[in-house]
Amino acid sequence: MPSMKAAVVGLGAMGMGIATSALKAGLDVTGCDVSDDALKVFSNAGGATAKTPAEAAKDADCLAIVVVNMDQTEAVLFGDGGAAETLKEGAVVMGCATVPPAYARSVAERLNAMGLLYLDSPISGGAAKAAAGRITVMGSGAADAFAKARPFLDAVAEKVFELGEDAGPGSTMKMVNQLLAGVHIATAMEALALGIRSGLDAEKVYEVITASAGNSWMFENRVPHVLENDYSPKSAVEIFVKDLGIVLETGKREGFPLPVSAAAHQQFLAAKAMGLGREDDAAVIKVFAELAGIELPRGKG
């Protein structure tokens, strides 16, 4: 694999997996995060660490920004201690957060004016696939940006979709994905709650539905969190408050009706209002439990 100096800003569940996968592939990787614990974990894995995005990005060929939202992306690039000023000319920035497509286009314009390349490159796959170097990248950008990022992409991704020559289509595709993901989670929890309220055993609901036509990837992946009574955040409720908000704002701008997305968004908003914003997104079932007075599984611990 060609030599590359890479930086990953954001060492959460996805970012840590991406950074360590790049390390395992032989790249020179510097990690950056606000958490000292995350920096220690990455250092113990053999990576270099930096306290600020500017420090991490210095001399990097590729910078992957694996943060939560538009505001954090903006801060990483253009805030105090931001990376844009220290990246060398011709370096490529991969924006991996779920952001509005218009924002992705704005970032690309500003970076291009600074002599930098930009890939609108939202990601999917979850923490396990990130750790295995098997994420999916929904990418859009110029051919030279894809070429510059290729060693990093080869190290961390199983599938890289090239969706257009400009920024925007990548974020649009991720928005469509998040619409489906959020609706599927809310629906899965509604269905499980109805089954419990109607007298079915939660474990049996999972066993039968995962072998039946009503199954979905989200049902199969998230219901075990409920069965195990484990709401530690793999992906948090507040993520879908944000992402479905992006979906609905886009629908409003386009004059496009999104009634099912709006209903799912309300359930995630209700969960956040109950103080569950930082719990796993499966915690949306607690909204149904509160309304229906049902007892959720307590796990086996």
Brief summary:
With 301 residues, the chain is of the alpha/beta class.
Describe this structure as you would to a colleague.
This protein has 301 residues and is of the alpha/beta class. The protein has two domains: 5-167, Rossmann fold (3-Layer(aba) Sandwich), CATH 3.40.50.720; 171-292, Orthogonal Bundle (N-(1-d-carboxylethyl)-l-norvaline Dehydrogenase, domain 2). The chain has 13 helices and nine strands. The chain has helices spanning 13-24, 36-44, 53-57, 70-78, 101-113, 126-131, 143-156, 169-197, 202-209, 217-227, 237-254, 259-276, 285-292; strands at 5-9, 28-32, 48-50, 62-65, 92-95, 117-120, 123-124, 135-139, 157-162. The longest helix is centred in the middle third of the chain and has 29 residues, at 169-197. The model has no long low-confidence stretch (mean pLDDT 95).
Attribute tags:
301 residues, 13 helices, 6-stranded parallel sheet, Rossmann fold, single chain, alpha/beta, 2 domains, 53% helix, 9 strands, N-(1-d-carboxylethyl)-l-norvaline Dehydrogenase, domain 2, 3-stranded mixed sheet
| CATH architecture term of the largest domain | 3-Layer(aba) Sandwich
The number of helices is 13
Query: Helix/strand-derived class?
Result: alpha/beta
Helical residue percent band:
40-55%
How many strands, which pairing sense, and closed or not: the largest β-sheet? 6 strands, parallel
Number of domains: 2
CATH superfamily of the largest domain: NAD(P)-binding Rossmann-like Domain
Distance between the termini: 45 Å
Q: Please tell me the overall pLDDT.
A: 95
CATH class of the largest domain: Alpha Beta
Low-pLDDT parts are none
Tell me the overall shape. globular
Gyration radius, in Å: 20 Å
Order of helix and strand elements from N to C terminus: EHEHEHEHEHEEHEHEHHHHHH
How many extended strands?
A: 9
Looking at how many chains there are and whether they match, the oligomeric state comes to single chain
Strand content: 5-15%
Q: Predict the CATH topology of the largest domain.
A: Rossmann fold
In order across it, which strands form the biggest sheet?
3-2-1-4-5-6
